[in-house]
Amino acid sequence: MRKLALHGGTPARKQPLPLHYPGALCLGKEEVERLSQVISSQSPFRYYGPDVRHCVTNLEDELAAYLKVPFALGVTSCTAALITSLKALGIGYGDKVIVPAITFIATAGAVIACQAVPVFVDVDDSLNMDPEDLARVYDEEVKAIIAVHLMGHACDMDRIMSFSRQYNVPVIEDVAQSCGVRYHGKDGGTIGDLGVFSFQMNKLLTAGEGGAVVTSSPELFERAVRYHDQGLFRDRSRYGISENDEELASFCGQNYRMSEFTGAVLLEQWHKLDGILTAMKANYSIIRKTLASELPSLKFRGDVDEEGDIGYSLGIQLASAEIARNFNTAMGAENIQTYVLYGGKPVYLFPQIFHQRTAETQHNPFHYPFKQPVRYREKMCPRAEDLVGRTVFLPISPLLTAQDVEEIIDGVVKVFGELDGGFI
Ligand SMILES: *Cc1c(COP(=O)(O)O)cnc(C)c1O
To answer: Known catalytic residue: 272?
Structure first.
C-alpha cells in the first residue's frame, strides 16, 4: 500500500487539476473578436439599433440546426428558460409540477416562481428521475414533468415519455448540466415538449449568464417568445409562423431577452462545443475503462446510455456518505478534487423549499387548496437521500493531458484501495 497524501505520503499529483469550467477556460480570441464587433456596432440590443449584428438570432439558428429542431430562443438564464417554458405550457396557481429529488434548486424554484408547486419524484441508480416512481406522485393536479439530465447523463427518456403520453402531461427537459447529451441517438432537450439550457459560468458553455429554450411546437414557441418579451412576438416572419390577431394572441410576459453581448460570446462558445465534447468524452472513456478494469469492485453511477454521456464528470457510488466524505478529503490531498452534489442533500431538504417559504406575503402557492396538501418530509425520496450523499463526482476536464489522466487514475486507485481495506 502506498501512503496516502492525507497521511503524509507523496500526492498522486503535484498540482491541482485545471478548474472545471470547460467553456470559460476556452474563452479566447474568437469571443473577443465577435464581442468587439457588437461593441463597434453600438447595437447591444437584439431587436434594434444602428447596426444590429444579429448574434442572438444566429445563435438561435445554430442551436436549432445542431439540435435539429425548428425553434430555439435565447434567454437570460436557464431559470428564465424554465419559467418561460412553464408559462408556455400555461402552468400557474393551483398546478403541480413533477421535479426529480436530485437537481439544482433552480428547477424547483422556477416552478414556484410560476405560482405552482413542485412534487418530488425519487431517482434511480443513475441519480436521474426514476420513471417507476412517477405514478406515485402523479394526480390530475400535475400539469408538467421536468426531467433533469443530471451531470452529463441522460434520463430514461423512453419511459418518461411513455408516462407523459399515457397521462397527457407535457415534459420539459432541463439540459442545464448536460449540453450535448444524447439518448439513444437523440439530442437531449429535443425529446420532450421543450428543452432548456444554461450558459451560466458553472455549465459546459458560458457567457457568465445565459439560457435557451428549444421546442418543435410552433404554438409553444410563440407562447415562449411572448412570455420572454412582454407579450410581444417581434420577428414572426423569420419563423414562418402565421399571423395571429395581436389583440387576441398577446398576454402579459416578462423581460428575459438575451443581449447581443451574451449572444456574441455564446455564438463562439457554441462553435467550440464539439471540440470540448470530443476531448472530454475521450478522457472520460479512458478513465472509466481503466478504473473498471483495475478496480473491479468500484461501482459507477448507473447509466441508460453510456455512449450518450457527455463525459463531464464521472460518478462513483461508495458504500456510505461517511466513506464518501473521507474519499473526497483523501482525493483532495492527492490534488484531485472530487465532491458530492448539493451538500449531499436532495433539493426538497433545502430550507426554503422544505419550509415552503416564498416571497409572497399572501397567496403562497403552497396554500392553494390542493386535494392533498403538498408537504415535504425527510425520507420522502429515500433512494435520492441515500445516493446523493454517497455518490462522488470526479470532474473530467477537456484540458487534461495524458499525464493528468494517468495521475487521476493512479489517485483513484490509490485512495479506493485504502477504502477497500477500510483504512480511511
Ligand atoms: C444551473 C442549473 C439551472 C439554472 O441555470 P441558471 O442559468 O443559473 O439559471 C437549472 N437547472 C439545473 C439542473 C442547473 O444545474
So the answer is: no
Please indicate whether residue 76, judged by its CB atom, sits closer than 6 Å to ligand 1: no
Joined together, the cell numbers standing for residue 362 give: 399572501
pLDDT tens sequence across 377-388: 999 999 999 999
Model confidence over 120-154: pLDDT tens digits?
Answer: 999 999 999 999 999 999 999 999 999 999 999 99
Distance 292 CA to ligand 1 centre (A): 31
Query: Does ligand 1 have an atom closer than 6 angstroms to the CB of 194?
Result: no
The Å distance, Cα 221 to ligand 1 centre, comes to: 20
Indicate if ligand 1 lies below 6 Å from the C-beta of 164. Answer: no
